[in-house]
Every structure is written in C-alpha cells, then in structure tokens.
Design a protein that fits this description.
With about 180 residues, the protein is α+β, with helices and mostly antiparallel strands. The chain has helices at about 45-55, 55-60, 75-85, 100-105, 110-115, 155-165; strands spanning about 15, 20-25, 35, 65-70, 90-95, 105-110, 125, 130-135, 140-145, 170, 170-175. Strand 1 (about 15) and strand 2 (about 20-25) form a beta hairpin.
Length: about 180
C-alpha cells in the first residue's frame, strides 16, 4: 500500500455517497477538494469531527473547496448517521477500502484499537483518520494522518491548509 504525500498526484476515485449520487475526484477538477477519511459512522470522535464541520458550515463554505467524508460503512449507514446528526457534508462509502488503500490510510486494528472502540472491517483493518487537501490540478497540497484517530483536524486546521494553497489568500479563494 503506497502512501500519498504532499506533491503527489491524488489517486482518482469514484464512490457512491449520500444524496443518491456518485462522487469522483474528477468532479473537483479546477476547484480542489478536502478529503476527510474517518474510521466510522456513529463513533464518538467521528461524530465530534463531523458535527464540528456542521456547526462551522459557513466557515467551510468560505474556503472555496468542498469537503467529502470517506469511510468503509455503507451509504445506508452514512444516510442514517447524517440524518441523526444533521450532517451536510457528503459521506462516501469505500466499503472495500480501495480508495483508503490508494491513499495509504489503512491500518491494522490491533487488540488495543478494538478496546478503545476503533471500528475494524471484517478483515481486521481500519481507516486512519486523515485529511488531504487536493488542489484543482489534482495534486495533494496537504496531508495529515492519525494512527490512533483520537483527535481530528479542526476547521481552523482546514482553513490554514487551504489558505496555504498558491491560489488562495486567506480563507476565501482568489478567482
């Protein structure tokens, strides 16, 4: 499993997601996108993360790039979680971990991970909480990954990451 780093071409993907549509990296060509990989719906830290994004939707919209959540649960699970938490960010189903593997953010769920509630797939793997900022040319400009998933990238962190892109000045894009 290769690890995608800053400066690399972002692996393309096409995944089913909430709202009854399919999402692909190509949809964000010329605009860029933030990919937020997360271990699982209905888990404590993931709920905190995505609710913080919901509560700061105006700030996220001001970034000029969309945020997509990606995890191994089904679209049906994503829809239930999004409805329960009133989440507005599209959630994509990477059930076989193909996309997570292509970005290098799959780990083995050790017994300790299982004790702290880290959701593992049937094969014993889990998705590491990770954020990638991909620019409009499909190049990874920011990467953050957490092996434990105990914390998450805040909206402040996302603003700083997007603000450092050459085509952005502060939180609003220069077009």
């Amino acid at each position: 499993m290769a690890k995608v780093d800053v400066g690399d071409q972002a692996p393309s993907f096409e995944l089913p997601g909430t709202g009854g549509r399919t999402y692909s990296l190509a949809d964000y060509s010329g605009q860029g996108v933030i990919l937020a990989f997360y271990p699982g719906d209905f888990t404590r830290v993931c709920t905190q993360q995505f609710c913080s994004y919901r509560d700061n939707a105006t700030r996220l919209e001001g970034l000029g790039v969309d945020v997509l959540g990606i995890s191994p649960q089904s679209v049906e699970s994503h829809e239930r979680w999004a409805e329960e938490q009133r989440l507005q960010i599209p959630l994509l189903a990477d059930e076989d971990l193909t996309v997570a593997k292509s970005y290098g953010v799959v780990g083995w769920a050790s017994p300790l991970g299982k004790l702290v509630g880290l959701p593992a797939t049937s094969g014993g793997s889990y998705v590491q909480r990770s954020v990638f900022v991909v620019d409009g040319d499909g190049i990874v400009r920011y990467r953050h990954s957490s092996r434990t998933g105990a914390g998450f990238q805040s909206v402040d962190d996302l603003e700083r990451a997007v603000g450092s892109l050459p085509e952005h000045r502060g939180p609003n894009p220069v077009r």
